[in-house]
């Protein structure tokens, strides 16, 4: 009887080290409280064509690459009906790309207007670097849009170690390719040593598909949608009601953790380090 000798080692490598990298989305996660820049740009874009869209419609595809976002908005029955009423024909792929090219300068301007750091992120990012944790970024913005994001963030005191745009990979979120490309740039082997942080469901799905720990931010991003000034102007009870709704929404994304903003990240990293030390994986 033939037998197969078992190898004296396993290919299932058990990682019990510390968190090595944090990979963050930008708008709504590390900059642009309420993720206002894309919404302002999409609303202006469609209004320029006589098609009124709501903020909720603009937010539904958030996290995707921007031409995909436009395509998904045009596929919404209400928007498509308005488009045909104005244009006389159903939208085409040529319309999508024409809108995308029109969108670019509008988006660049709104990024400059709303690109401030999320409160607390400067101190948290400095502390993470002091611990030896690498900081990567990825985004549904293209390279030109990201260049403006990076410029505004740098002026406020923050730079990511590396970044990957959706237009730099074959497919953006929810595919894991951007997060994996950040890992490659950071020269990190273990996905379980990485944390993906995002304010959209599709961004969390990206991290899950990449085999990483995932952290959803609720109040600072898309699930809230208010600017920092609007948020701070609300009384405490209204803030809490919005926060509860936003936390519930982001919990449905399947994220391992839900926090209000990246200011709360250090406690999450401590808990993940504890889990890794005991042999747990995402």
TrEMBL record:
Record EC number: 3.11.1.1
CC cofactor note: Binds 1 Mg(2+) ion per subunit.
Transmembrane spans: none
Molecular function in Gene Ontology: magnesium ion binding; phosphoglycolate phosphatase activity; phosphonoacetaldehyde hydrolase activity
Gene3D superfamilies, sorted: HAD superfamily/HAD-like, Putative phosphatase, domain 2
Residues annotated to bind Mg(2+): 25, 27, 199
Family to which this protein belongs: Belongs to the HAD-like hydrolase superfamily. PhnX family.
Role summary: Involved in phosphonate degradation.
The protein's name in its UniProt record: Phosphonoacetaldehyde hydrolase
Native organism: Litoribrevibacter albus
